[in-house]
Amino acid sequence: MPKHYRPAGKKKEGNAAKYITRTKAVSYLQISLAVFRKLCILKGVFPREPKKKVEGNHKTYYHMKDIAFLAHDPLIEKFREIKVHRKKVKKAIAKKNRDLADRLLNRPPTYKLDRLIIERYPTFVDALRDLDDCLTMVHLFAALPAVEGERVQVQRIHNCRRLSHEWQAYISRTNALRKTFISVKGIYYQAEVQGQKITWLTPHALQQVLTDDVDFNVMLTFLEFYETLLGFINFKLYHSINVNYPPILDPRLEALAAELYALSRYMSSGRLPGNPETNGLIKDKETENNEEGSKTVESELRLAQLQHQLPANEPGTLMHLVEESTADDTEDSTVKECRSLFKNLKFYLSREVPRESLLFIIPAFGGTVSWEGEGAPFDETDQDITHQIVDRPTQSHVFLSREYVQPQWVFDCVNNCIVLPTEYYVVGRVPPPHLSPFVDNDEVGYTPEFEEKILKRLRAASKDKVLPLPGLGDEDQDNSMVDARSEYNEVAEKKRKLDMLEKQYHEELKMEIEGETFSSLANKKGDNPTHAVDNDAHAANDQVDDLVEQAKKDEAEMSKSFVSNKTEGLIRAIEINKERKRSNVELLKERKRKASSSASAKRK
Amino acid sequence: MGHANEDLRPDNNDGLSSDNEPWSEQDDDEGSLSFDDSGSDDSDEDEAVAGESDSSEDEVGPRNTVGQVPLEWYKDEEHIGYDIDGRKIKKRDREGRIEQYLRNADDAKNWRKIYDVYNDEEVQITKDEAKIISRLLKGKTPHANVDPYPDYVDWFEYDGKGHPLSNAPEPKRRFVPSKWEQKKVVKLVRAIRNGWIKFDKPKEEPNYYLLWGDETDTADNKREGLSYIPAPKPNLPGHEESYNPSVEYIPTQEEIDSYQLMYEEDRPKFIPRRFETLRSVPAYEKALREGFDRCLDLYLCPRTRKKRINVDPESLKPKLPSKKDLRPYPRTCYLEFKGHNGPVKSLSVEATGQWIASGSSDGTIRVWEVETGRCLKVLNVGADVHDIAWNPSPERPILAAIVGHDLLLLDAEVGDEETKMRTKELLCVDEPTPEDDADGKKPAVRWVKHEKFDGITLIHHKAVKTVEWHSKGDYFTTVVPTGESRAVLLHQLSKKRSHHPFRKLPGLPVAATFHPTQKMFFVATKKFVQVYDLQKAEVVKKLESGLREISSISIHPGGDNVIVGSKDGKLCWFDTDLSTKPYKMLKTHKKDITSVTFHRRYPLFASSSEDCTAYVFHGMVYSDLNQNPLIVPLEILRGHLSLDRRGVLDCKFHPRQPWLFTAGADSVIRLYCE
């Protein structure tokens, strides 16, 4: 068959040749639908929308080039190998050929996704841009129950936990966290890495239930890709701050489910070689574990690795320290601000507080933190503690040297980038509404009361405090603010002038209506200011206003008569959208009004 | 041999055979029972049975040797058969019934006796035999001491019996190494040597490495294949998703209930709730589901780049030139002409612009002075005036008015004496047209002198709708919509002659008008505008309006542009040089357009409608053929009141000034000026 053979009736160009339906694509690739799905997910191939759907509107179309891209992927061959291997094992077991089965099971065909990652994300920034879904998924699976016999392997869940902690440790370490938000769905975080805003959602630290309405095959395929991606990203990020990857953690802390703390310890220990505390801890652990025969061997192995690693880091860390000091100057003001938000504050978390999230957030903003439980760096009785985070109706024993606040305080502080006064968040009090930092209130057209009345004022107050301080970035900001203000003033001035002109024009129009000649008009102009409050003039004014209104309406109508049907539809759609937005805001205002009136009635 | 065979059988067979043994014995007993004749020597027989079970029948055979023949054959004989020596066996003497009975009654063992027909003798069953029979009847084993399920006793001793099963000699292959195995081993060895089979576990390679090494070379770092469309990021949460939102974000119970009435797709997916403390927030039950939905979106949704238009709707509307540059045009009402008592159906402006004439449905024609608004004259014509047209020639102040069914030509008497004289001459009919043609057909039009106003009545065969003058003032045309082949009529005033050149029209005619300069003629039917060349008497063009029903037509003074108003409120501008399709369609009025008109000097045109408004447009036609006409809406003129759902019925421009006259259904004529 010649290379250019084209079956009769097959189109050479156009949508019919460019796009292929899914069923045809599957038969073209000679694979099953399940494998096709998996390939699409891993390769990041998605359906396209052809201009003309040749084979019907209800079908999914793939671009022929995408399908050719899949067809050339060695992964297809690998999947076939896996299928064959599975059959071989089955056959060996069926023939009671235990040896062969074992041998086969020992060496299953494997595949790696690193090539795919570099193919899909040629640069690191590309990968960071698409990281939102990846992080959300990994964090979701990290929160699933790690129970043997469930649909998700325990090992996968542990891997997700590890990856998520590694990511959080990096973010916390580099003070890259910007915004947080506790929603009903979980806690949203937004970080800024290499100029990319990355937002992810962590479910609340409660047991999730595996439901039946989801297809785990699809999710696990996604997770497979995401795990690899996040692993490589973590490697790159750790590499950029001169920390070895994968990190080796203190097993004792790991056992206490304080991996995050362990990780941050690891990172800082990578910086400060020969940390006596760490070594002591490890020795402790060794003595503890002496009884557990098999485990000790393992732990000793790890210990050896750890000790091997510490000196290896030494020259690098020195270099890094130098780098750090220089880097500090070039860092932008936001990072600085974030680093110093909780500086010199010492936190202590009560038992009932979501530990993982706060262990992540507080160090990310420069605070030190401890918790109730084993492995904590310091006790509740520590005198230096400035804030204790408590989420219970009453606190029985109170240290006078510290403040007792609810966890929301931390989140609100972070979002507003100031240390808020704790009076609103005192234990036992209903905290003020928790507002989303992701909403642009001006665009929505509605600002919640708390934001408007309190947060704005506080922020402004803190800004004032900052302003007199000499600082490069701040000065710039100030200048720009001044510029903006002057610009605004100019605009306002112009507007006022225009208004004046318009008014004058209206006045003239009114005169004309009244049928006065220009000369009398001139006369009247002289008179007008003298009796400003004149009923007649008022009535006329109203009439003029009406007329002007009418004229405006007429204008709109007239220009509409020229618009094509398509644009007219577009205009209508825009107007409907605007109307919907407006009605939403209206509804909020209405509810607010009702709530406040009922509250005031209660007070009475 | 048989035993040996049995032993070779699998175990389960052994059990079966053990079961069989007692039963076979029992079979033999039965046989002995049925054919036993003597019955006396039980013990002997038992022994015989034990000794040789099969031969019992032969030994104690029956006395009679006839075999199994029907005994009927011997019914009449004395003998019953033959014994073994061939002697006849005599039948016994028959006993009487009574004797038999008596004997039986005496004998206590009678119930055990059975008469053997074959041997012709009585047999007595022993007690044991009776027992057996009774047991058999009950379905038990014949002998009471038989155990139906005895324990199996394997009588054969296996150990030490060196007997081979087969006596064949050992084959050679038992002593030679297997060739097949050798081949297999060779294969395996080769596979191992070549590394096809590996026994040790594969070495673990480092999973992660620096994938994105140096990124300096940007040309290399380009994604291959089709352009990548990144998936849209999930929406960021708003205030309402907070665990502790402001009060105003929480819907009331009624609102939540009302969601049930909405369509499922309109229903809000998320209902905000408020939790007092963070510790009371439960796990989100739809977390997995939402993650899964996102996955589905990522790999199943077709992606396209769409430009989101986030623009001010005002910017989408076309930019119109400033109105100030387009002045002068009528903007405000300057004068009102009041006097009519019914809707003013039509008006017309005199060629000099000094006078206007208006016709109303109150049966009067009024002539007004424009500048003062004074009513010069009231002519009571006695019927509805549908249309009125002033002769465009200033020397002939003649009014053509459609009164009732017919057309009335009359002198307006506004000129000086000389013109009055000339007009009078014109308006006299020497000999009225005869009532019947030469063919005996009723003529389309009859010119008859009108006595009352000293004018001429043109009596049409059917009701006339519109009248229009030629610009020279000699010809005029009338349209009779129901006139069929005589629907459009041309009249010549000087010769008092009429004819109807258009036999066939595409639909009902609505209006007709002359080309301002050339010898062309326009006829508007309900959907089309036909352009005729009067000299060649043929159709030049057919303009397709695409409108539902044309109501009025007006020709630009240049003659190349036509505007048409329709009863669905649309106004079409035709550029006849450009195309037969509308150049521009203006959706201006909400109700029927009653009249459209061009200004003779200024680049203005206007339309009036039943919705009580009149629109004024700027319509500039350039002499350069490459430049399309410029149309700008200028002003909406209001002021007329609606009466009986009718608004403005007619509009006309002043011939010299940028003034517009409108005739309203509220019996007022308005003059709009700059």
The largest pleated sheet of chain B is described as: 5 strands, antiparallel
**From the coordinates shown, what is the CATH architecture of the largest domain in chain B?**
7 Propeller
Shape of chain A: flat
Radius of gyration of chain A: 34 Å
Mean pLDDT over the residues of chain B: 83
Biggest interface between protein chains, with counts per chain?
Answer: A-B, 107 and 88 residues
Which terms summarize this structure?
heterodimer; A: 604 residues; Multidrug-efflux Transporter Regulator, Chain: A, Domain 2; Rossmann fold; 4-stranded parallel beta sheet; 9 strands; 7% strand; flat; B: 674 residues; alpha+beta; Methylamine Dehydrogenase, Chain H; 5-stranded antiparallel beta sheet; 4-stranded antiparallel beta sheet; 11 helices; 33 strands; elongated; disordered N terminus; BRCT_dom (chain A); PES (chain A); RNA binding (chain A); ribosome biogenesis (chain A)
Overview of the structural elements:
The complex is a heterodimer of chains A (604) and B (674). With 604 residues, chain A is α/β, with parallel strands linked by helices. Chain A folds into four domains: 15-72, Multidrug-efflux Transporter Regulator, Chain: A, Domain 2 (Orthogonal Bundle), CATH 1.10.1660; 120-323, no CATH class; 337-466, 3-Layer(aba) Sandwich (Rossmann fold), CATH 3.40.50; 563-604. Helix content of chain A is 61%, strand content 7%. In chain A, helix 17 links the parallel strand 6 and strand 7 (368-371). In chain A, helix 10 (154-173) runs parallel beside helix 11 (216-240) and helix 10 packs parallel to helix 17. The longest helix of chain A has 43 residues, at 472-514. The N and C termini of chain A lie far apart (93 Å). Chain B has two domains: 2-137, no CATH class; 326-673, 7 Propeller (Methylamine Dehydrogenase, Chain H). Chain B has eleven helices and 33 strands. In chain B, strand 6 and strand 7 (355-360) form a beta hairpin. In chain B, helix 2 packs antiparallel against helix 3. The termini of chain B are far apart. Chains A and B meet through helix 3, helix 4, helix 7, helix 8 and helix 9 of A and helix 9 and strand 30 of B. Chain A: Residues 484-511 form a coiled coil. Chain A: Residues 282-298, 524-539 have a biased composition (Basic and acidic residues).
